[in-house]
Amino acid sequence: MSITIVLYIAIVLSLIWARLRFFKMTSGTPRLSALLYDATVATQIITTLILMFTTSGKSLPLVAASIFLYALSLFLFWWSIFTAKKLDFAFSNEVGSIVTTGPFRIVRHPFYTSYVLAWLGSTFLFNSLILWITLTYLIAFYFLSARKEEGVILKSVYSNEYRKYIQNVGMFLPRIKNGSDQVQDSDGGKRD
């Protein structure tokens, strides 16, 4: 369980660093949303740490799965940091440049994906009601944040570029290609 604890603490420290030094809060970020989000993340983190230090005897497959999810989360998070350089915190009304390289080639919101991977690792490992509730809230928060952020981009000068990006790259999960380089239209037709 010690590697699990080390990975999880690395995730927590990374998230704290990013929240304070990487993501900038703008006037478009509602304070209540940010506070509720921070409280939910804190609940997820504190509950996980308490369970890590007070529970034992978890099955090897669960521990292995959580180690994999934590490691994947950390990798995706730091790859995103090095690719993006600096971003606004969720629900910002500002549009910076669109990043479509690195992990952003695979999913449109790799930070959110990395967070969900970490929270999933803890929730699966401990199967705690508190963790399931916070996981559900956080996934909803990330989805709503992503939709709002994308809505702002789609109203900006980057709208055409971003529409093409949306057609080729999944929001949180990689888009599975059908073997061709053509994009599938919503009406079922293909185009280049």
**How many extended strands?**
4
* Oligomeric state of shown chains: single chain
Distance between the termini: 49 Å
Helix residue percentage: 55-70%
Unreliable stretches: 182-192
Which whole number gives the mean pLDDT?
86
- Which term fits the overall shape? globular
Radius of gyration (CA) equals: 18 Å
The CATH architecture category equals Up-down Bundle
SSE order, as H and E?
Answer: HEHHEHHHEE
Strand order of the largest sheet: 1-2
Largest sheet: 2 strands, parallel
Strand fraction: under 5%
What do these coordinates show?
By secondary structure, this protein is mainly alpha-helical. It has a single domain, classed as Four Helix Bundle (Hemerythrin (Met), subunit A) (Up-down Bundle), CATH 1.20.120. Helix content is 64%, strand content 4%. It has six helices and four strands. The chain has helices spanning 2-22, 31-54, 60-84, 110-126, 129-154, 159-168; strands spanning 23-24, 87-88, 183-184, 190-191. The strands form two sheets. A two-stranded parallel ribbon has the order 1-2. A two-stranded antiparallel ribbon has the order 3-4.
Feature tags:
single chain, 192 residues, mainly alpha, Four Helix Bundle (Hemerythrin (Met), subunit A), two-stranded parallel sheet, two-stranded antiparallel ribbon, 6 helices, 64% helix
